[in-house]
Protein 1
Amino acid sequence: MSDTPKFEVIDRRKIKAEEEQESQQHSAPPAEAPAATGGGPRLVVNESKPAPAAPPEAAPPAEGEIPAPPTAEESLEQKEAYDASAQRLEDLVRAQNPAVGAQPPVNFENLVQQFYISAMVQMGAGAQEGQRPRVDILGARTTIDLLGVLAEKTRGNLTAAEDKTLQTVLFEVRMAFLELTSMITLQGMQPPQPPPPGKR
């Protein structure tokens, strides 16, 4: 059995449409029963106008198949909701700490910096003094590979400054990876060294 986690893409638009359809069905007023003329149960016929038929839904995607992308209208609606929510959050933060100014917009350099920090932390950087660094070498390799994919897919579309930042970061994390893997390889070939004596 593989240790790789499996994930499933869920199309939230269909779930929302189903919930709205159910709420419309439950909110429809019940039809009044005609006056009983005799004993026993009576069949109640709903004579109100039938609810408009829901548009035919596409068959759910087969396992492993990616659902259709959202429409332009859905994307715009979702972006507006996201922006409004982010603005409310920023207003709350500023209300708690008025000295905090507006956050600068996120740009390409922030993305590259995020990958850089992730890779370095995965390679043990940032460990507190006296603590043994926790190394996730396979996670670091994945993060570095993602930076490589980013460089490949954005080639020719970056400004000179963005390209320089990306290439510099990619060079630095690859060098750190090479140094770390060579240390791991050397330690694997030699008997383990005793820890250094503690300070008294």
Protein 2
Amino acid sequence: MASVEFEHVDRIFPDGTRAVADCSMRIEDGELVVVVGPSGSGKSTLLRMVAGLEEITAGTVRIGERVVNALSPQERNVAMVFQDYALYPYLSARGNLEFPLRMRRLSRAEMRRRVERAADLLGIGPLLERLPKQLSGGQRQRVAMGRALVREPSVFLLDEPLSNLDAKLRVQVRAEIGELQARTHTTMIYVTHDQVEAMTLGDRVAVLDRGRVQQVAPPRDLYDRPANAFVAGFIGNPPMNLFPTRLSLDDRGRVVMDLGGQPVPVSGAAAHAAPVTAGIRPESLRLVPAGAADGGAVRGVVEHLEYLGHETQAHVRVATGGDGGVRLVARVQGMPGLAKGEPVGVQIDPDRVHLFGEDGRALGDPRR
């Protein structure tokens, strides 16, 4: 097992496309780091550079203490699991697990030991004599993971391994991957576009956008203290409500932001001449009867309701002039008696408002 370190890594394709730009981060020995971001953000390219399947244009990648820029994939002692499984259809599950070991010319006894250990860890012992076509999607994914595991790699790389599974099976296999990593203590880099996978699996999560690392942090820190507006709007389902505003002082000397033409107090902020972006998590909004708007709530109208059983996502337009208002999504427990077109009050906790400057970074972020 080993750490992985990126130092100012770039990947520029021959057509000039910059897939990864100035990436610097460290993944500790035995850590599971999930790399998440929208399509085209450079996630898979980053993973392929660790594996040696993609050239590094600039910068340095280290596995343990070794710089691996010039090493072949075979020399790096990493194992990769792809989203399409990439199993040999003419080999049994056992044959697929043994294949990388045969290439290394390991003894029959050592191959048996490694295959049996992987099969036991993944619960695929009864499936070893079946061909891939005789296995379900989840079973094929376990075999693909087992084929990587038998190599006893320093680093385990997973490129969207659950994308071909149905929703229920994704939850099950996701839990199995987490348990596998906890038992083996193997360093894992897991790439996904699914933020639920990222937030539930990773010791830390790295958020990418257009090839640049936006933030690397434990899931809770990522959610509660996003470094910039992109992370704030990307992490969370539904995502954080973001809207442009200005900060000023009211007649009581409080710092307030403008929300749909109505002043809302903001804690821990200073009056700011430049425009800012405000962010509020859906669970930080509280809907109250319209008559309570005079007690500190802003006035709004329900535009749309999404009933999810355990909660309702209420889309509310906050009243304003002629610019269409600010639309907010509030997370409400259960199935409240709200109706489309109903006027409501929206209460906002001043301590739960996030503010981002014109450059997108969180105001008060020490990196500014």
Protein 3
Amino acid sequence: MPMTTPIPFNVFSSELLPDETVHWTGRPNAAVIFHKEDWAVVPFSMLWGGFAIFWFLGASGIANFWTNRPDKTFQWFGVVWGTPFVLVGQYMIWGRFVYN
């Protein structure tokens, strides 16, 4: 990665109000992917996403986890109700890395 020289502080002085100051210039470290708060977010997102998919498959009738009946009828209610939860779970697992 090429080294870049930081922008001098006085470049922005004409844009600042009298009581404002520049505290930092440059770029954040692009190599940092995980942050401190991710230690709680990652396990929660995996639990949310995993359970949402498990519930979606069972409630929609695609997979029958709770009984051994051969009746595996497709349930639209399970699809309509479960889809937002699955989408939120997938965003928490993958989307926040792609979106940022």
Protein 4
Amino acid sequence: MIIHCQRDGLLAACQLVSQAVAARSTKTILMNVKAIAEEDRLTLVATDLEIGMRYQLVGVRVEDPGEAILPINRLTSILRETPDSEVAIDADERRCKVSTRASEYEMPSEDPSGFPDVPEFGDAPYQELTAGVLRLLIKRTAFAAAKQDTKYSITGALWEAEDKKIRMVATDTRRLAMATAAATKAAAPETKGQSHLIPVKAFLLLERTLTDDAELVKVCPRANDVLFQTEKATICTRLLEGRYPPYRDIIPKKAALKIPLAVDAFLSAVRQAAIMVDEDSKRVGFTFSNGKLTLQAQGAATGKSKVEMPLDFKGDPLTIYFDPNFVGDMLKVLDPASTIQLDLVDGQKPALFRAGDDYVYLVMPLT
């Protein structure tokens, strides 16, 4: 395989696919990427056996078509450091040679036939939505998933499709985010009403490939995995095992109080009050009273804070305690100029934030 391509485009492609490369593996080939050169394009393939990615780079001059294994970390370093705008790669099953105008590097390689297959999208039934809509779904939910997989937490997000509606749900058991959006193509009959638990890592990788909000993204859920196809990339990920919590059952159906909150002002007040939160308490008191919201925090060593903001509220005072990070995480993914509604039962029950008809965020209060 011999190719010539622009340095910037290849660097961006390598940085992207490296997110699917195995960090550690007994199979050293998985710590690299497979390159397939044909016609005027180069396809980079990476997988850690859980998530796989195929990324297509066009505008490449292919002198000799073929396949090769590229040492992704060193190749990325070369591309990042070289000042030259064009690079040439000459690789086979024994070695990979990278040349620029002023430099030359040669590294050992491996037989590309030993690289695991990453499936292409194919002709299976699929759902379809715009990149802008998909990005919004990911942005509004992925942050609420558990960061580490334990017995009672889930590092994936639930994907549900029904007709032309897509729903994503994520939870770490202390909070839950649910977003719904319209698709441009309805779910296939055999996938309607089905739920798929997809690793958040796959969604974050997918999000990085989305550059044009109008771009159409195809989604093909299957029995054990799911495929996403954008204009330049195909991502395949295994589904997570296990049953998702019955999230509909824990979302409150009624509320004693419904309080409107301006996102920008509310986020500012939360951030100000949280300055005095310490690592032991990690809590802010939210007191709703006639005409105002008072936020108070106190740490054993840090001191205390009191922040007030005007509020369209009348009634008996009610105090509820939250981790300010949990409230702030939600507010940061919303339009600062928008208004949300906070539904409360009392100071002990879960609180529900609503942003229009398509987004809800449930938070457990602290005692």
